[in-house]
Amino acid sequence: MGGDLAVTSEIGKGSRFRLEIPVREGIASMVTEKTDSRRRFRLEAGHPPCRVLVADDMEDSRVFLVQTLENAGFEVQEANDGREAVAAFSRWRPQLVLMDKRMPNMNGDEAIERTHPIELISRCFRHPQNIGPAFRPPFPVLRYRADKRADRLFR
Protein backbone atom coordinates (compact mmCIF):
# COMPACT_ATOMS: atom_id res chain seq x y z
CA MET A 1 0.00 0.00 0.00
CA GLY A 2 2.90 2.33 0.71
CA GLY A 3 2.98 5.39 2.91
CA ASP A 4 4.68 6.61 6.04
CA LEU A 5 3.83 6.78 9.75
CA ALA A 6 5.80 9.04 12.07
CA VAL A 7 5.38 9.94 15.73
CA THR A 8 6.87 12.67 17.90
CA SER A 9 6.33 12.72 21.64
CA GLU A 10 7.03 15.20 24.41
CA ILE A 11 6.68 14.28 28.09
CA GLY A 12 3.87 16.20 29.72
CA LYS A 13 2.56 17.50 26.38
CA GLY A 14 1.52 14.35 24.53
CA SER A 15 2.20 12.74 21.19
CA ARG A 16 1.67 13.74 17.57
CA PHE A 17 1.09 11.13 14.89
CA ARG A 18 1.48 11.76 11.17
CA LEU A 19 0.20 9.33 8.55
CA GLU A 20 0.88 9.77 4.86
CA ILE A 21 -0.66 7.32 2.40
CA PRO A 22 -1.05 7.55 -1.36
CA VAL A 23 -4.73 7.80 -2.30
CA ARG A 24 -6.65 8.79 -5.41
CA GLU A 25 -9.87 10.72 -5.54
CA GLY A 26 -12.82 8.39 -5.56
CA ILE A 27 -15.64 8.13 -8.08
CA ALA A 28 -18.89 9.43 -6.61
CA SER A 29 -21.07 6.99 -8.56
CA MET A 30 -19.29 4.06 -6.90
CA VAL A 31 -20.24 5.21 -3.40
CA THR A 32 -23.34 3.52 -2.04
CA GLU A 33 -25.35 4.84 0.83
CA LYS A 34 -25.10 2.63 3.87
CA THR A 35 -28.41 1.62 5.34
CA ASP A 36 -28.75 1.25 9.09
CA SER A 37 -29.70 -2.38 9.68
CA ARG A 38 -29.95 -2.09 13.47
CA ARG A 39 -33.39 -2.65 14.93
CA ARG A 40 -34.79 0.30 16.78
CA PHE A 41 -37.53 0.08 19.32
CA ARG A 42 -40.01 2.79 20.24
CA LEU A 43 -43.23 2.99 22.12
CA GLU A 44 -46.14 2.70 19.72
CA ALA A 45 -47.78 5.94 18.63
CA GLY A 46 -50.55 6.83 21.06
CA HIS A 47 -49.05 4.71 23.86
CA PRO A 48 -49.49 6.45 27.21
CA PRO A 49 -46.29 7.84 28.74
CA CYS A 50 -44.16 5.32 30.60
CA ARG A 51 -41.93 6.58 33.46
CA VAL A 52 -38.59 4.81 34.02
CA LEU A 53 -36.13 5.48 36.83
CA VAL A 54 -32.47 4.59 36.09
CA ALA A 55 -30.23 4.32 39.16
CA ASP A 56 -26.52 3.74 38.58
CA ASP A 57 -23.41 5.29 40.07
CA MET A 58 -21.42 4.69 36.86
CA GLU A 59 -22.10 7.72 34.68
CA ASP A 60 -21.35 5.97 31.38
CA SER A 61 -23.83 3.17 32.10
CA ARG A 62 -26.48 5.57 33.37
CA VAL A 63 -26.16 7.94 30.39
CA PHE A 64 -26.32 5.01 27.94
CA LEU A 65 -29.53 3.67 29.52
CA VAL A 66 -31.14 7.11 29.81
CA GLN A 67 -30.41 8.04 26.19
CA THR A 68 -31.55 4.65 24.87
CA LEU A 69 -34.83 4.82 26.78
CA GLU A 70 -35.50 8.47 25.91
CA ASN A 71 -34.86 7.73 22.22
CA ALA A 72 -37.46 4.96 22.49
CA GLY A 73 -40.06 7.41 23.82
CA PHE A 74 -39.89 6.74 27.57
CA GLU A 75 -39.92 9.47 30.21
CA VAL A 76 -36.73 8.94 32.20
CA GLN A 77 -35.24 10.24 35.42
CA GLU A 78 -31.88 9.22 36.80
CA ALA A 79 -30.24 8.74 40.18
CA ASN A 80 -26.54 8.47 41.09
CA ASP A 81 -27.02 6.18 44.09
CA GLY A 82 -29.60 4.37 46.18
CA ARG A 83 -30.55 7.39 48.30
CA GLU A 84 -31.24 9.48 45.22
CA ALA A 85 -33.24 6.58 43.78
CA VAL A 86 -35.50 6.40 46.85
CA ALA A 87 -36.06 10.17 46.75
CA ALA A 88 -36.79 10.12 43.01
CA PHE A 89 -39.15 7.18 43.46
CA SER A 90 -41.19 8.89 46.17
CA ARG A 91 -41.34 12.13 44.19
CA TRP A 92 -41.95 10.75 40.70
CA ARG A 93 -43.50 7.26 41.08
CA PRO A 94 -41.95 5.46 38.06
CA GLN A 95 -43.60 2.49 36.40
CA LEU A 96 -40.27 0.71 35.88
CA VAL A 97 -37.01 0.88 37.82
CA LEU A 98 -33.59 -0.10 36.44
CA MET A 99 -31.40 -0.41 39.54
CA ASP A 100 -27.68 -1.14 39.77
CA LYS A 101 -27.11 -3.55 42.64
CA ARG A 102 -23.76 -2.03 43.66
CA MET A 103 -23.79 1.69 44.45
CA PRO A 104 -22.29 3.90 47.14
CA ASN A 105 -24.34 5.30 50.06
CA MET A 106 -27.11 2.71 49.60
CA ASN A 107 -27.03 -0.36 47.36
CA GLY A 108 -29.78 -1.18 44.90
CA ASP A 109 -31.38 -3.93 46.97
CA GLU A 110 -31.70 -1.67 50.02
CA ALA A 111 -33.09 1.14 47.88
CA ILE A 112 -35.79 -1.18 46.49
CA GLU A 113 -36.68 -2.30 50.02
CA ARG A 114 -37.07 1.33 51.06
CA THR A 115 -39.51 2.04 48.24
CA HIS A 116 -41.88 -0.64 49.53
CA PRO A 117 -43.13 1.45 52.49
CA ILE A 118 -43.74 4.41 50.18
CA GLU A 119 -45.89 2.27 47.90
CA LEU A 120 -47.48 0.43 50.82
CA ILE A 121 -48.67 3.66 52.48
CA SER A 122 -50.01 4.93 49.17
CA ARG A 123 -51.84 1.67 48.53
CA CYS A 124 -53.35 1.63 52.03
CA PHE A 125 -55.08 4.90 51.35
CA ARG A 126 -56.28 3.86 47.90
CA HIS A 127 -57.11 0.15 48.36
CA PRO A 128 -56.66 -1.04 51.97
CA GLN A 129 -58.22 -4.44 51.18
CA ASN A 130 -55.31 -5.30 48.84
CA ILE A 131 -52.58 -5.20 51.49
CA GLY A 132 -51.26 -8.63 52.36
CA PRO A 133 -48.27 -10.04 54.25
CA ALA A 134 -46.27 -10.75 51.09
CA PHE A 135 -46.43 -7.27 49.64
CA ARG A 136 -44.51 -6.77 46.41
CA PRO A 137 -44.23 -3.42 44.67
CA PRO A 138 -46.71 -3.05 41.79
CA PHE A 139 -43.92 -1.95 39.47
CA PRO A 140 -41.22 -4.02 37.78
CA VAL A 141 -37.68 -3.70 39.07
CA LEU A 142 -34.76 -4.85 36.97
CA ARG A 143 -31.70 -5.22 39.19
CA TYR A 144 -28.34 -5.51 37.49
CA ARG A 145 -24.67 -5.41 38.27
CA ALA A 146 -22.41 -3.89 35.64
CA ASP A 147 -18.87 -5.09 35.26
CA LYS A 148 -16.11 -2.63 34.42
CA ARG A 149 -16.29 -4.10 30.95
CA ALA A 150 -19.37 -2.58 29.33
CA ASP A 151 -20.14 -5.77 27.40
CA ARG A 152 -20.80 -7.81 30.57
CA LEU A 153 -24.03 -7.25 32.51
CA PHE A 154 -25.15 -9.58 35.27
CA ARG A 155 -28.60 -10.07 36.73
Textual characterization of the structure:
This protein has 155 residues and is α/β, with parallel strands linked by helices. Helix content is 28%, strand content 24%. It contains 3 helices and 7 strands; from the N terminus they run βββαβαβαββ. It has helices at residues 59-71, 82-92, 108-126; strands at residues 4-10, 14-20, 51-55, 75-79, 96-100, 141-146, 153-154. The strands form 2 sheets. A 5-stranded mixed β-sheet has the order 4-3-5-6-7, sandwiched between helices. Helix 2 runs parallel beside helix 3. The chain is flat, with a radius of gyration of 24 Å. It starts with a strand and ends with a strand. The model is unreliable at 120-135 and 149-155 (pLDDT under 50).
Q: pLDDT average, as an integer?
A: 76
Distance between the termini: 48 Å
* Count of alpha and pi helical runs: 3
- What is the percent of helical residues? 25-40%
The percent range for strand residues is 15-25%
Q: Spatial order of the strands in the main sheet? A: 4-3-5-6-7
SSE order, as H and E? EEEHEHEHEE
Tell me the number of strands. Answer: 7
